[in-house]
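Supplementary Methods, section 5.1.

A reviewer requested that the exact input to the structure prediction be made available. We therefore reproduce it here, unchanged from the version used in the analyses.
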Amino acid sequence: MNQLLLLRFSAMGDVALLAPVVQAFTQRYPEAEITLVTRAKFAVFFEGFPNIRIVGADFDGQHKGLAGLIRLFNELRQLASFGVVVDAHQNLRSGVLKSLFRLIGVPSVTIDKGRAEKKELTRKENKIRRQLPHSVERYARTFDKAGFTLQPAQPFQFPSFTSAKGELTTFLDHHTVNYSVPWLGIAPFAQHEQKMWPFERFAPLLKQLYTATPIAIFLFGGGASDIAQLETLREQFPQAILVAGHLSLAAELALIRQLTGMLCMDSGNMHLAALSGVPVLSIWGATHPDAGFGPWGQGDEAILQIPVDVLTCRPCSVFGNKPCWRGDLACLNDISVELVAMRVRQMLAR
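The structure derived from this sequence is encoded token-by-token as follows.
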């Protein structure tokens, strides 16, 4: 059996976006096997695919530093005799691992992240605006370099997360959810402020949505800070269901599959919803789908943003981690509650 070593350590959305490529690989090359090195918690994205082994990288513990990478290399050598290393991450750690494998005669291929063209898209002056390849397409091109031609499905849907069925059923029974109304997921957060619609607008948004139509709303988030903010929403709208902090990642994914739609930012939750085959409405600020990170398999109906001919500074960042040049975050603040409510209703009707 052909053995392929695949490297993509983080972040959550970027690892999840490998799923359509891994699925296409397992379908076209059923005799081959992938060993994917990533964070252990991301193994859930691939549990439904055959011939894939997940190796959990612990870069805060046993695989920390150069000595840890050498330890990881030796662990991987014991697993299989790899024919090629596919680096879908391209960072210092993946570079070290590729160098170690080259020393024992294993070739490697590396993703082209398109850094130069992304810089042209986001620079302050003389932007070159064009649709750049999606991350999924970049992953597929990297496999092509290794001799594996792939056509990832779009739209794509994760296989069912049957292992989480009992956990999700218990959660939904506890909340006595109405199954006859639309289910809307809301994920207000992203990694950077420049990608987040003002949180104080979600309360008037929920008021409009609950007033307009029967609906069940599920609140998604990550860490303690997200949960604390979502709790303030739930105090105003006790009928809203707080998901953040109450379900495993597998159960969250199983719940997302059942949603009618997901309102989110340019974030990991956007990718998880799109990869679950769920209609998405994603709000964009400093970043732009042209950089190649839009919801996979969905079109303009999944995007809400101030047009670039109205705000010519957009996009000012690939990842949303740079300060606003104008200082007013007009790209987010100029998106009204009424507009979001209207687009959400359109999404739920799709």
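The first strand starts at residue 3 and ends at 7. These observations are discussed further in the main text.
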